Model the fold of this input.
Amino acid sequence: MPRTNRRTVLQGIGVGGAAALAGCSSQSAPQATSETARKTTEQAMNQSKEITADRVAADPTDVPDPIDRDEPREVDVTLRAEEVTAEVEDGVTFNYMTFNGRVPGPMVRVRRGDTVNLTFENPDGNDLPHNVDFHACYGPGGGAEATTVAPGNTEQLSFKATYPGAFIYHCAVPNMDMHISAGMFGTIVVEPEEGLPEVDHEFYLGQHELYTDKRAGETGHHQFDMKAMPREEPSYVVMNGEKYALTPDGYGPMTVETGDTARVYFVTGGPNLTSSFHPIGNVWKELYPRGSFESATQKHVETTPVAPGTTTVATMEFPVPGAVKLVDHALSRVARKGCMAVIAAEGEEDPEIFDPEPDA
Ligand SMILES: [Cu+2]
Done:
């Protein structure tokens, strides 16, 4: 795998030396936070330059099993804020903020009527306070106030998942746009009482953008850029936290066999850009619009908008072999900013459906 010797590459280019903090902008954050607090956040984000995590890209197959019960119950969930330095691509480091070390954070899966008992840890050694806002619950801030926790402490929250659907959760402290842009978002799936239709595969993906002080591909440590974020001009737009993470050039594609079915859970963390989510060489066979399980599904949709703060759910089938590229069809983000994931379908050709050499 190309990423195995990243550490060597970084040592070779001298990453790790002291460097100045990012220049602070005069632009104020959307929340009522003081300039001092914002600078502290920015400084905390830019201190570390040594790689502390080999990977932040979540495994897209790391999906909890479908719910297989008829009664509600209590579900214990532990989320942990992890501030890590990792590579966006070979030779490019960035200080991420994550839930459990992965982007997107772990998928939480419950049944409508379940009570979620959350333990939220902010380990000693982190620089910043964090919290969790679940779009799957009624209550102030989706639990944000109740879960706000300083480094070295733990908070708890219980809520009932009263309505079904797929929902984002995200950090919502002041400077929440920055925390989400650094990686703090994930998905909670609340299955309807009757469950979801059976499929052969489930994949979990998240898109978001990184605002840094360098252009995509420029090697070295990329510091967070507080001027680029309000301008909405990211250096990178990525799926699962890193450039082309889920492709043959990264950690490898997702794999299926021809004839299989798959369901994709796709969360846009943002914080600012809407994804135009499209499978190249395929189609969203059934789309649960904006992750709603109770609305009518839409059939054979080519491209669906997935706005920041949304998890969309869609199914696919694979009648013929080949690579299906999942992209944001705002294609400069694909060609220049790292936004693509691949599902590789293996199996028999079916020339009746697709024949690349009709004269052969
Ligand atoms: Cu946070």
